[in-house]
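Q: I'm building a small set of examples for a reading group on sequence design. Run inverse folding on the following structure and report the sequence directly after it, with nothing in between.
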Protein backbone atom coordinates (compact mmCIF):
# COMPACT_ATOMS: atom_id res chain seq x y z
CA UNK A 1 0.00 0.00 0.00
CA UNK A 2 1.45 3.39 -1.02
CA UNK A 3 1.90 6.25 1.43
CA UNK A 4 -1.17 8.16 0.21
CA UNK A 5 -3.45 5.13 0.63
CA UNK A 6 -1.98 4.51 4.07
CA UNK A 7 -2.59 8.12 5.09
CA UNK A 8 -6.18 7.94 3.83
CA UNK A 9 -6.74 4.79 5.91
CA UNK A 10 -5.31 6.46 9.02
CA UNK A 11 -7.53 9.52 8.48
CA UNK A 12 -10.60 7.30 8.03
CA UNK A 13 -9.71 5.48 11.27
CA UNK A 14 -9.23 8.77 13.09
CA UNK A 15 -12.60 10.06 11.84
CA UNK A 16 -14.27 6.87 13.04
CA UNK A 17 -12.69 7.08 16.52
CA UNK A 18 -13.75 10.72 16.97
CA UNK A 19 -17.39 9.55 16.96
CA UNK A 20 -17.04 7.57 20.21
CA UNK A 21 -15.83 8.22 23.75
CA UNK A 22 -13.17 8.45 25.05
CA UNK A 23 -11.57 9.05 21.66
CA UNK A 24 -13.76 12.09 20.98
CA UNK A 25 -11.97 13.88 23.84
CA UNK A 26 -8.53 12.40 23.27
CA UNK A 27 -5.49 14.61 22.77
CA UNK A 28 -4.52 15.11 19.10
CA UNK A 29 -1.08 13.53 19.40
CA UNK A 30 -2.47 10.48 21.23
CA UNK A 31 -5.29 10.06 18.71
CA UNK A 32 -2.82 10.28 15.82
CA UNK A 33 -0.63 7.60 17.43
CA UNK A 34 -3.64 5.34 18.03
CA UNK A 35 -4.97 5.68 14.47
CA UNK A 36 -1.52 4.92 13.05
CA UNK A 37 -0.92 1.83 15.20
CA UNK A 38 -4.31 0.14 14.84
CA UNK A 39 -4.79 -2.87 12.58
CA UNK A 40 -8.15 -3.97 11.18
CA UNK A 41 -9.22 -7.61 11.68
CA UNK A 42 -12.26 -9.54 10.42
CA UNK A 43 -14.24 -12.16 12.38
CA UNK A 44 -17.02 -14.34 10.96
CA UNK A 45 -20.22 -15.19 12.80
CA UNK A 46 -19.44 -17.41 15.81
CA UNK A 47 -15.69 -16.74 15.80
CA UNK A 48 -14.16 -16.42 19.27
CA UNK A 49 -12.27 -13.13 19.38
CA UNK A 50 -10.87 -13.35 22.93
CA UNK A 51 -11.19 -16.28 25.34
CA UNK A 52 -9.92 -17.30 28.80
CA UNK A 53 -8.25 -20.18 26.98
CA UNK A 54 -5.93 -17.75 25.18
CA UNK A 55 -3.82 -17.02 28.26
CA UNK A 56 -2.56 -13.53 29.05
CA UNK A 57 -4.29 -10.96 26.86
CA UNK A 58 -1.95 -9.18 24.45
CA UNK A 59 -4.40 -7.34 22.16
CA UNK A 60 -6.83 -4.48 22.79
CA UNK A 61 -9.94 -4.37 20.56
CA UNK A 62 -12.18 -1.54 19.38
CA UNK A 63 -15.28 -2.67 17.47
CA UNK A 64 -15.48 -0.98 14.05
CA UNK A 65 -18.55 -2.79 12.71
CA UNK A 66 -20.89 -5.51 13.95
CA UNK A 67 -21.60 -6.87 17.44
CA UNK A 68 -19.63 -8.86 20.00
CA UNK A 69 -21.24 -11.06 22.66
CA UNK A 70 -19.37 -11.06 25.98
CA UNK A 71 -20.17 -13.84 28.42
CA UNK A 72 -18.51 -15.12 31.57
CA UNK A 73 -16.73 -18.45 31.11
CA UNK A 74 -18.79 -20.10 33.86
CA UNK A 75 -22.00 -19.12 32.08
CA UNK A 76 -21.17 -20.84 28.81
CA UNK A 77 -23.87 -23.24 27.76
CA UNK A 78 -26.32 -21.68 30.22
CA UNK A 79 -28.97 -18.99 30.01
CA UNK A 80 -26.99 -16.61 32.17
CA UNK A 81 -26.80 -12.89 31.50
CA UNK A 82 -24.54 -11.77 28.67
CA UNK A 83 -23.47 -8.37 27.38
CA UNK A 84 -23.53 -7.22 23.77
CA UNK A 85 -20.95 -4.70 22.57
CA UNK A 86 -21.32 -2.53 19.46
CA UNK A 87 -19.28 -0.11 17.33
CA UNK A 88 -16.90 2.14 19.26
CA UNK A 89 -16.85 -0.06 22.34
CA UNK A 90 -13.60 -1.56 23.65
CA UNK A 91 -12.55 -4.85 25.22
CA UNK A 92 -11.01 -6.39 27.30
CA UNK A 93 -9.82 -3.40 29.34
CA UNK A 94 -9.33 -5.03 32.76
CA UNK A 95 -7.36 -7.99 31.42
CA UNK A 96 -5.15 -5.72 29.30
CA UNK A 97 -4.26 -3.45 32.21
CA UNK A 98 -3.71 -6.38 34.56
CA UNK A 99 -1.78 -8.38 31.92
CA UNK A 100 -3.82 -11.42 32.89
CA UNK A 101 -6.18 -14.00 31.43
CA UNK A 102 -9.55 -12.66 30.34
CA UNK A 103 -12.59 -13.67 32.40
CA UNK A 104 -15.04 -13.29 29.50
CA UNK A 105 -15.37 -15.07 26.20
CA UNK A 106 -15.97 -12.59 23.36
CA UNK A 107 -17.76 -14.06 20.32
CA UNK A 108 -18.63 -12.44 16.99
CA UNK A 109 -22.35 -12.04 16.27
CA UNK A 110 -22.52 -11.90 12.48
CA UNK A 111 -19.70 -10.33 10.48
CA UNK A 112 -17.49 -8.21 12.71
CA UNK A 113 -14.56 -5.86 12.04
CA UNK A 114 -12.33 -4.84 14.97
CA UNK A 115 -9.44 -2.41 15.29
CA UNK A 116 -6.62 -4.11 17.20
CA UNK A 117 -3.83 -2.60 19.28
CA UNK A 118 -0.85 -4.53 20.69
CA UNK A 119 -0.03 -4.42 24.40
CA UNK A 120 3.09 -2.27 24.00
CA UNK A 121 1.17 0.36 22.03
CA UNK A 122 -1.70 0.12 24.51
CA UNK A 123 0.53 0.96 27.48
CA UNK A 124 2.25 3.73 25.53
CA UNK A 125 -1.19 5.23 24.86
CA UNK A 126 -2.02 4.99 28.57
CA UNK A 127 1.16 6.89 29.42
CA UNK A 128 0.74 9.75 26.93
CA UNK A 129 -3.05 10.24 27.07
CA UNK A 130 -4.61 11.37 30.38
CA UNK A 131 -8.03 11.07 28.75
CA UNK A 132 -7.54 7.42 27.82
CA UNK A 133 -5.92 6.66 31.17
CA UNK A 134 -8.86 8.20 33.02
CA UNK A 135 -11.33 6.27 30.86
CA UNK A 136 -9.68 2.92 31.64
CA UNK A 137 -9.35 3.74 35.35
CA UNK A 138 -13.02 4.73 35.60
CA UNK A 139 -14.01 1.56 33.76
CA UNK A 140 -12.22 -0.61 36.32
CA UNK A 141 -13.70 1.39 39.20
CA UNK A 142 -17.17 0.85 37.76
CA UNK A 143 -16.60 -2.90 37.52
CA UNK A 144 -15.44 -3.03 41.15
CA UNK A 145 -18.46 -1.02 42.28
CA UNK A 146 -20.82 -3.32 40.38
CA UNK A 147 -19.17 -6.41 41.90
CA UNK A 148 -19.46 -4.96 45.40
CA UNK A 149 -23.12 -4.08 44.89
CA UNK A 150 -23.83 -7.56 43.58
CA UNK A 151 -22.21 -9.18 46.62
CA UNK A 152 -24.12 -6.92 48.99
CA UNK A 153 -27.37 -7.76 47.22
CA UNK A 154 -26.70 -11.49 47.41
CA UNK A 155 -25.85 -11.27 51.11
CA UNK A 156 -28.94 -9.17 51.81
CA UNK A 157 -31.16 -11.66 49.98
CA UNK A 158 -29.60 -14.55 51.87
CA UNK A 159 -30.13 -12.82 55.20
CA UNK A 160 -33.73 -12.03 54.29
CA UNK A 161 -34.46 -15.62 53.31
CA UNK A 162 -33.20 -17.22 56.49
CA UNK A 163 -32.45 -16.53 60.10
CA UNK A 164 -28.81 -15.76 60.64
CA UNK A 165 -26.13 -17.33 62.76
CA UNK A 166 -26.30 -14.12 64.81
CA UNK A 167 -29.75 -15.15 66.08
CA UNK A 168 -30.08 -15.45 69.85
CA UNK A 169 -30.60 -19.01 71.05
CA UNK A 170 -33.75 -17.84 72.80
CA UNK A 171 -35.17 -16.97 69.35
CA UNK A 172 -34.59 -20.53 68.12
CA UNK A 173 -36.63 -22.12 70.92
CA UNK A 174 -40.06 -22.81 69.45
CA UNK A 175 -41.72 -24.73 72.31
CA UNK A 176 -41.34 -25.33 76.06
CA UNK A 177 -38.62 -27.85 76.98
CA UNK A 178 -39.50 -31.49 77.57
CA UNK A 179 -37.68 -33.01 80.54
CA UNK A 180 -37.84 -35.72 83.18
CA UNK A 181 -36.47 -36.20 86.68
CA UNK A 182 -33.56 -38.43 87.64
CA UNK A 183 -35.87 -41.06 89.14
CA UNK A 184 -38.02 -41.43 86.02
CA UNK A 185 -37.76 -44.94 84.60
CA UNK A 186 -36.16 -45.66 81.25
CA UNK A 187 -39.52 -46.93 79.95
CA UNK A 188 -41.36 -43.74 80.96
CA UNK A 189 -38.61 -41.61 79.44
CA UNK A 190 -38.77 -43.37 76.07
CA UNK A 191 -42.57 -43.22 76.08
CA UNK A 192 -42.44 -39.49 76.75
CA UNK A 193 -39.93 -39.01 73.92
CA UNK A 194 -42.26 -40.82 71.51
CA UNK A 195 -45.30 -38.90 72.75
CA UNK A 196 -43.55 -35.54 72.47
CA UNK A 197 -41.88 -36.48 69.18
CA UNK A 198 -38.43 -35.39 70.31
CA UNK A 199 -35.08 -37.03 69.64
CA UNK A 200 -33.61 -36.27 73.04
CA UNK A 201 -34.76 -36.00 76.63
CA UNK A 202 -33.17 -33.69 79.19
CA UNK A 203 -32.85 -34.97 82.72
CA UNK A 204 -33.21 -32.27 85.38
CA UNK A 205 -32.98 -31.97 89.15
CA UNK A 206 -35.66 -30.59 91.43
CA UNK A 207 -34.83 -27.00 90.44
CA UNK A 208 -35.15 -27.69 86.69
CA UNK A 209 -31.40 -27.55 86.23
CA UNK A 210 -30.11 -29.99 83.56
CA UNK A 211 -27.86 -32.74 84.86
CA UNK A 212 -28.00 -35.17 81.92
CA UNK A 213 -29.37 -35.95 78.48
CA UNK A 214 -30.63 -39.11 76.80
CA UNK A 215 -30.94 -39.36 73.00
CA UNK A 216 -32.40 -41.76 70.45
CA UNK A 217 -28.95 -43.04 69.55
CA UNK A 218 -28.48 -44.10 73.19
CA UNK A 219 -31.42 -46.52 72.96
CA UNK A 220 -29.52 -49.03 70.85
CA UNK A 221 -26.08 -48.78 72.49
CA UNK A 222 -27.14 -48.41 76.14
CA UNK A 223 -30.43 -50.32 76.36
CA UNK A 224 -31.13 -52.76 73.51
CA UNK A 225 -27.67 -54.28 73.02
CA UNK A 226 -26.71 -54.52 76.73
CA UNK A 227 -30.24 -55.71 77.61
CA UNK A 228 -30.72 -52.98 80.21
CA UNK A 229 -33.91 -53.31 82.27
CA UNK A 230 -36.50 -50.68 81.38
CA UNK A 231 -37.59 -50.19 84.98
CA UNK A 232 -34.22 -48.75 85.96
CA UNK A 233 -34.04 -44.97 86.45
CA UNK A 234 -32.96 -42.91 83.45
CA UNK A 235 -29.98 -41.67 85.46
CA UNK A 236 -28.36 -45.08 84.87
CA UNK A 237 -28.04 -44.56 81.09
CA UNK A 238 -28.05 -40.78 80.55
CA UNK A 239 -25.01 -38.76 79.47
CA UNK A 240 -23.93 -36.63 82.39
CA UNK A 241 -22.77 -33.01 82.38
CA UNK A 242 -24.46 -32.02 79.11
CA UNK A 243 -23.16 -28.94 77.33
CA UNK A 244 -25.17 -25.83 78.18
CA UNK A 245 -25.25 -22.25 76.86
CA UNK A 246 -27.12 -19.21 78.19
CA UNK A 247 -30.19 -18.07 76.26
CA UNK A 248 -28.32 -14.84 75.53
CA UNK A 249 -25.74 -16.76 73.45
CA UNK A 250 -25.96 -16.86 69.66
CA UNK A 251 -26.50 -19.60 67.11
CA UNK A 252 -22.83 -19.51 66.12
CA UNK A 253 -21.90 -20.29 69.76
CA UNK A 254 -24.01 -23.44 69.55
CA UNK A 255 -22.47 -24.34 66.18
CA UNK A 256 -18.99 -23.84 67.61
CA UNK A 257 -19.76 -26.04 70.62
CA UNK A 258 -21.09 -28.81 68.36
CA UNK A 259 -18.05 -28.59 66.12
CA UNK A 260 -15.54 -28.50 68.98
CA UNK A 261 -17.06 -31.23 71.16
CA UNK A 262 -18.64 -33.50 68.54
CA UNK A 263 -22.13 -33.19 70.08
CA UNK A 264 -25.53 -32.84 68.44
CA UNK A 265 -27.51 -31.02 71.14
CA UNK A 266 -26.89 -27.92 73.23
CA UNK A 267 -29.07 -27.18 76.25
CA UNK A 268 -30.21 -23.58 76.63
CA UNK A 269 -30.49 -22.24 80.20
CA UNK A 270 -31.46 -18.93 81.79
CA UNK A 271 -29.44 -16.81 84.21
CA UNK A 272 -30.36 -19.20 87.05
CA UNK A 273 -29.16 -22.18 84.93
CA UNK A 274 -32.70 -23.50 84.61
CA UNK A 275 -33.58 -25.35 81.41
CA UNK A 276 -35.21 -23.21 78.72
CA UNK A 277 -34.98 -25.55 75.75
CA UNK A 278 -32.75 -27.62 73.45
CA UNK A 279 -31.02 -26.53 70.24
CA UNK A 280 -30.05 -29.38 67.94
CA UNK A 281 -28.02 -29.60 64.77
CA UNK A 282 -31.30 -29.78 62.88
CA UNK A 283 -32.26 -26.36 64.27
CA UNK A 284 -29.04 -24.94 62.85
CA UNK A 285 -29.50 -26.54 59.41
CA UNK A 286 -32.01 -23.88 58.40
CA UNK A 287 -29.37 -21.24 59.10
CA UNK A 288 -26.80 -22.77 56.76
CA UNK A 289 -26.66 -23.91 53.18
CA UNK A 290 -23.95 -26.38 54.07
CA UNK A 291 -25.00 -28.50 57.05
CA UNK A 292 -22.76 -28.71 60.10
CA UNK A 293 -23.73 -32.31 60.75
CA UNK A 294 -23.10 -33.19 57.12
CA UNK A 295 -19.59 -31.73 57.29
CA UNK A 296 -18.74 -33.49 60.55
CA UNK A 297 -19.99 -36.80 59.14
CA UNK A 298 -17.94 -36.24 55.99
CA UNK A 299 -14.82 -35.59 58.04
CA UNK A 300 -15.22 -38.36 60.58
CA UNK A 301 -16.24 -40.93 57.98
CA UNK A 302 -13.74 -39.95 55.31
CA UNK A 303 -11.75 -42.97 54.13
CA UNK A 304 -9.78 -41.16 51.41
CA UNK A 305 -8.00 -37.86 50.98
CA UNK A 306 -10.41 -36.95 48.17
CA UNK A 307 -13.30 -37.10 50.64
CA UNK A 308 -11.39 -35.02 53.21
CA UNK A 309 -10.46 -32.46 50.57
CA UNK A 310 -14.16 -32.03 49.73
CA UNK A 311 -15.05 -31.72 53.41
CA UNK A 312 -12.41 -29.02 53.78
CA UNK A 313 -13.99 -27.10 50.89
CA UNK A 314 -17.38 -27.45 52.61
CA UNK A 315 -15.93 -25.96 55.79
CA UNK A 316 -14.81 -22.89 53.87
CA UNK A 317 -18.23 -22.60 52.19
CA UNK A 318 -19.98 -22.86 55.55
CA UNK A 319 -17.69 -20.17 56.94
CA UNK A 320 -18.46 -17.92 53.95
CA UNK A 321 -22.18 -18.38 54.59
CA UNK A 322 -21.67 -17.43 58.23
CA UNK A 323 -19.68 -14.36 57.21
CA UNK A 324 -22.48 -13.37 54.83
CA UNK A 325 -24.87 -13.62 57.75
CA UNK A 326 -22.80 -11.17 59.79
CA UNK A 327 -20.98 -13.48 62.21
CA UNK A 328 -18.10 -11.64 63.89
CA UNK A 329 -14.45 -12.28 63.07
CA UNK A 330 -13.54 -13.76 66.47
CA UNK A 331 -16.41 -16.27 66.47
CA UNK A 332 -15.81 -17.12 62.82
CA UNK A 333 -12.09 -17.86 63.25
CA UNK A 334 -12.78 -20.05 66.31
CA UNK A 335 -15.42 -21.96 64.38
CA UNK A 336 -13.11 -22.52 61.40
CA UNK A 337 -10.30 -23.59 63.71
CA UNK A 338 -12.50 -26.14 65.49
CA UNK A 339 -13.51 -27.83 62.23
CA UNK A 340 -9.95 -27.62 60.89
CA UNK A 341 -8.76 -29.42 64.03
CA UNK A 342 -11.23 -32.20 63.24
CA UNK A 343 -9.85 -32.45 59.69
CA UNK A 344 -6.28 -32.59 61.01
CA UNK A 345 -7.14 -35.39 63.43
CA UNK A 346 -8.73 -37.40 60.63
CA UNK A 347 -5.70 -36.89 58.37
CA UNK A 348 -3.44 -38.12 61.17
CA UNK A 349 -5.69 -41.16 61.73
CA UNK A 350 -5.52 -42.09 58.04
CA UNK A 351 -1.74 -41.62 57.98
CA UNK A 352 -1.33 -43.99 60.93
CA UNK A 353 -2.75 -46.78 58.78
CA UNK A 354 0.33 -46.52 56.56
CA UNK A 355 2.88 -45.82 59.31
CA UNK A 356 3.51 -48.15 62.23
CA UNK A 357 4.04 -45.95 65.29
CA UNK A 358 2.73 -48.51 67.77
CA UNK A 359 4.48 -48.29 71.13
CA UNK A 360 5.88 -44.80 70.50
CA UNK A 361 4.78 -42.01 72.81
CA UNK A 362 4.23 -38.94 70.66
CA UNK A 363 1.89 -35.98 70.20
CA UNK A 364 1.06 -33.70 67.28
CA UNK A 365 1.39 -30.00 68.10
CA UNK A 366 -0.34 -27.12 66.33
CA UNK A 367 1.28 -23.69 66.44
CA UNK A 368 0.47 -20.28 65.00
CA UNK A 369 -3.08 -19.36 64.05
CA UNK A 370 -4.38 -22.92 64.53
CA UNK A 371 -2.88 -23.11 67.99
CA UNK A 372 -4.53 -19.79 68.86
CA UNK A 373 -7.91 -20.80 67.32
CA UNK A 374 -7.54 -17.90 64.90
CA UNK A 375 -7.59 -19.60 61.52
CA UNK A 376 -9.22 -17.87 58.57
CA UNK A 377 -10.27 -18.93 55.07
CA UNK A 378 -6.70 -19.21 53.85
CA UNK A 379 -4.04 -20.45 56.24
CA UNK A 380 -0.73 -22.25 56.13
CA UNK A 381 0.65 -24.95 58.39
CA UNK A 382 2.60 -24.51 61.61
CA UNK A 383 3.04 -27.81 63.43
CA UNK A 384 5.46 -30.19 65.06
CA UNK A 385 5.84 -33.51 66.88
CA UNK A 386 7.03 -34.08 70.44
CA UNK A 387 8.05 -37.65 71.32
CA UNK A 388 9.68 -39.81 73.94
CA UNK A 389 12.64 -41.91 72.84
CA UNK A 390 12.85 -45.23 74.77
CA UNK A 391 16.29 -46.18 76.04
CA UNK A 392 16.60 -49.24 73.80
CA UNK A 393 15.64 -47.40 70.60
CA UNK A 394 18.07 -45.45 68.43
CA UNK A 395 17.01 -41.82 68.32
CA UNK A 396 17.96 -41.26 64.67
CA UNK A 397 15.95 -44.27 63.47
CA UNK A 398 12.94 -43.18 65.48
CA UNK A 399 13.18 -39.63 64.12
CA UNK A 400 13.28 -40.95 60.55
CA UNK A 401 10.07 -42.93 61.14
CA UNK A 402 8.33 -39.90 62.61
CA UNK A 403 9.56 -37.60 59.85
CA UNK A 404 8.24 -39.95 57.15
CA UNK A 405 4.89 -40.01 58.93
CA UNK A 406 4.89 -36.22 59.35
CA UNK A 407 5.80 -35.69 55.70
CA UNK A 408 2.65 -37.56 54.61
CA UNK A 409 0.49 -35.64 57.09
CA UNK A 410 1.91 -32.29 55.90
CA UNK A 411 1.35 -33.22 52.26
CA UNK A 412 -2.25 -34.27 52.92
CA UNK A 413 -2.94 -31.10 54.91
CA UNK A 414 -1.69 -29.19 51.87
CA UNK A 415 -4.16 -31.13 49.68
CA UNK A 416 -6.95 -30.02 52.02
CA UNK A 417 -6.12 -26.34 51.62
CA UNK A 418 -3.59 -25.82 54.42
CA UNK A 419 -0.60 -24.70 52.40
CA UNK A 420 2.93 -25.72 53.33
CA UNK A 421 4.70 -23.26 55.60
CA UNK A 422 7.14 -21.08 53.66
CA UNK A 423 9.29 -20.84 56.79
CA UNK A 424 9.35 -24.66 57.00
CA UNK A 425 7.86 -24.69 60.53
CA UNK A 426 6.34 -28.15 60.08
CA UNK A 427 6.55 -31.54 61.70
CA UNK A 428 8.34 -32.92 58.63
Amino acid sequence: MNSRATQMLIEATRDFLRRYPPFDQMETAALDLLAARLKLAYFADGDVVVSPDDGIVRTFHIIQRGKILARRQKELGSSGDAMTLGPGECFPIGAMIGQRTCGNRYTAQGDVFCHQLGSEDFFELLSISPVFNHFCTQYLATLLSQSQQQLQTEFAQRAAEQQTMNSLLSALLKKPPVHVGVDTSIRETIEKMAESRVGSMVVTDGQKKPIGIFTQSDVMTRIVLPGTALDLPIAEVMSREPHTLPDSAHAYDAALAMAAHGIRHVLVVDAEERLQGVVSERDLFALQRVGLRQIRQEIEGAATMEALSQASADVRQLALNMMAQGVGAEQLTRFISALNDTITRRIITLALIEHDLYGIEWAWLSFGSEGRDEQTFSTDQDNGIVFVCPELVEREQLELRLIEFARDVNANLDRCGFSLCLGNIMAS
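Residues 130-161 form the longest helix (32 residues).
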